[in-house]
Amino acid sequence: MTxxxxxxxxxxIIRGALQFAHPRYWLTWFGIxxxxxxxxxxxxxxxxxxxxxxxxxxxxxxxxxxxxxxxLELCFPELDSDQIEALMKAHFKVLGQAALTIGINMFxxxxxxxxxxxxxxxHYYDQVIADGRPVILLAPHxxxxxxxxxxxxxxxxMFSMYQTIRNPLIDFLVRRGRSRFGGIMxxxxxxxxxxxxxxxxxxxxxxxxxxxxxxxxxxFASFFGIQTAVTPGFSRFARLSKAVVVPCFTKMLPQGRGYxxxxxxxxxxxxxxxPVEDARRMNExxxxxxxxxxxxxxxxxxxxxSRPEGEESLY
Length: 315
What we know:
The chain is α/β, with parallel strands linked by helices. The protein has helices at 3-18, 26-39, 43-60, 63-75, 81-100, 102-107, 110-116, 123-130, 146-153, 168-179, 192-200, 233-241, 275-292; strands at residues 117-120, 135-138, 158-162, 183-187, 205-207, 219-223, 226-230, 244-252, 259-263. The chain has 13 helices and 9 strands. The strands form 3 sheets. The protein has a 5-stranded mixed beta sheet with strand order 1-9-8-2-5, sandwiched between helices. A two-stranded parallel ribbon has the order 3-4.
């Protein structure tokens, strides 16, 4: 990038931020300033205080504590109550760490991010790119899920879907942070033909698949032995674009040592003509990642909120 382009980009960011100079945004700006200042700390320091924050979150979580416990008891029936409690505490500690590293996601330089990230079995991804095949990176909701997309988008344009945030300032900063190295943000309600077209031209799709679709289109498939709602859109994208699906998980390393991005082998024979079977295969791959780092999955989300017709709420 030339000096002129760099200055132009900086000017664009400043102009974008100035639209939020109204006093109603001042409190949000103060919070953003704190997030930025924390992001300047060494990662081991942030991790230490983040785990302390997690202990506090565990004690005040209220309803969310019930959701986490329910999710863990459903997914790990082999664990006794003491083991579930220990896993819950570990989960809130990594949540605290993730909360204090939001500024790294939003503001860290590419050089710093590259120094924090190591990659395992990256050849699975590289081979698909070398073959010229469309690729979907299946990136479930682990607490550090954005890191892989940030680093990989600096190598070639990569797109991901997002949902507009109600606070316009936070929405602006989040979109700017996720797209600053080459990421392309596509709103979830956008024309899906645009998504398929980009994939067919070779733009990787960094896809976060595992949120409850709510009242939207869904199928039910086994996830840890529980019938779980999944949007069939994932299977549809893969089929229309003829994409290879490569599972990709980001692991937060202990004591602030950074992150490890883990790639699994591409899903074989995927997609099929059966969206339920495809959802089951996707869930199976996500389970594999969770079993490696169970405390780092986003258990505070009501993953089993939607139920098959006639079933009562699990929460």
